[in-house]
Design a protein that fits this description.
Chain lengths: ~325, ~90
């Protein structure tokens, strides 16, 4: 009678960015995962759809639940096979806030949020990644014009018109309120629980936003202005928090300095009391010494010794007794 | 009638009472601080560490004059104690 072979199932949390492959993992380490598909299929439909949207998938394209699960799984494998540096190129170009040690899935989720159609400044490998994330078939050897052409072709007519309209509005608004030139992209500070992937990232401020025109073009008039106001408010709050922090630091330094002074004064005071006590002891001791000397040398009867006698006188005294 | 040396009586009583009083007060204070610093409260832990840091930051140079005087006074006191012993040894 043979015992049935037991299979061990690897449990993975679906859709959890922290459970994805480490950022430094190479494509060679990627293994085909069957368990996550089963785990994904156990998720509720709304969570599945949310997960698909986070990976840049259009849920309306997938009629059945199985198709959606398969698409998410395929997208995950696609992300795992992507070049991380190329993904970072896209993030820099799209000015998305990520840390330098972010995982591939985190970077991919940020890339999926980029809706810009201005491809200037994006490298060829970045374009390949962007095209793949937008559901296009792109080879590593495809040229930049070809990739841009495909990306633009993918955008529908109405989407293009809407984008143009938003771009026009953005131009108007930015002309009205003025525009500041965007600074160079900077990564977010790395999170403490995530080790750095290969190199150390400088601690810097969050990325400076793109121009207002581009924001309005991407998010619409209200969304763009709201985003800009939110960022301005965040910046103001951060500045105020920094001021409060520095004020607290100054107060703490002042308290520390005063406490140090108080400690020194207190110790000096204690030592002075000890010194006075010792002086009193020494003075009393000196008086006692003089007194003892006088008493012992002048008033003690033991000190009066009889005069020394010769041995002959001693013998005579004994005989007479 | 017993022959009582009043100065002798005074200095012995003074030394005994003062020594016992100072010892009890010092031990009481040290024990109180020890118990307080042993407290499990987060604030107490913070205060304990802070006191340790303050103690480590102490510089001898700040109080060296008084400390040296105290040391010399202690030596003088011990010498006088020794002289007392020598004087009474001579008397016996």
């Amino acid at each position: 009678m043979s015992t049935p072979e037991r299979t061990t199932e690897m449990k993975m949390l679906p859709g959890e960015p922290g459970t994805s492959l480490p950022a430094a993992a190479s494509a060679a380490e990627i293994v085909s995962a069957t368990s996550p598909v089963r785990q994904l299929s156990e998720l509720p439909k709304d969570e599945l759809e949310h997960l698909a949207e986070e990976y840049g998938l259009d849920t309306s394209d997938f009629k059945t639940r199985q198709a959606l699960v398969a698409a998410i799984h395929a997208r995950r494998q696609l992300i795992a096979s992507m070049d991380r540096d190329a993904m970072l190129d896209v993030v820099k170009w799209g000015r998305r806030p990520v840390t330098l040690n972010a995982t591939k899935e985190q970077i991919a989720q940020e890339i999926a949020r980029i809706g810009s159609m201005r491809f200037a400044g994006l490298s060829q490998r970045g374009l390949v990644v962007l095209a793949k994330m937008r559901g296009l078939n792109a080879a590593e050897t495809d040229s930049i014009p070809l990739l841009i052409k495909r990306l633009k072709r993918q955008e529908g007519l109405f989407s293009k018109l809407n984008r143009k309209r938003r771009s026009f509005l953005g131009s108007l608004v930015s002309n009205m309120i003025g525009e500041e030139t965007p600074s160079e992209y900077q990564f977010l500070p790395p999170t403490p629980n995530q080790p750095l992937a290969g190199q150390s990232a400088p601690i810097v401020a969050p990325p400076h936003p793109a121009s207002l025109k581009q924001e309005i073009e991407e998010s619409g008039l209200i969304g763009g202005i709201a985003g800009r106001i939110k960022k301005s408010a965040d910046s103001y709050v951060n500045q105020k928090l920094d001021e409060i922090e520095s004020r607290i630091d100054r107060k703490l330094d002042e308290i520390d300095r005063r406490l140090g002074e108080w400690r020194d004064k207190e110790i000096a005071n204690r030592i002075r009391i000890l010194k006075i006590t010792l002086w009193a002891s020494v003075v009393v001791g000196a008086v006692s010494l003089i007194y003892s000397y006088i008493v012992v040398n002048f008033f003690t009867p033991h000190r009066i010794q009889p005069p020394l006698q010769s041995p002959a006188q001693t013998t005579e005294n004994v005989r007479s007794q | 009638m017993p022959d009582i040396d009043f100065f002798n009586f005074f200095r012995w009583m003074l030394s005994i009472v003062a020594t016992i009083y100072a010892t009890v007060i010092t031990l009481q204070s040290l024990w109180g601080w020890y118990i307080w610093f042993q407290g499990p409260d987060k604030f107490i832990t913070l205060a304990r560490r802070y006191v340790i840091v303050q103690g480590l930051r102490l510089r001898f140079k700040t109080f060296w004059g008084d400390v040296i005087i105290c040391g010399l006074l202690c030596i003088a006191f011990l010498l006088m104690w020794r002289l007392h012993g020598l004087i009474y040894a001579r008397a016996v």
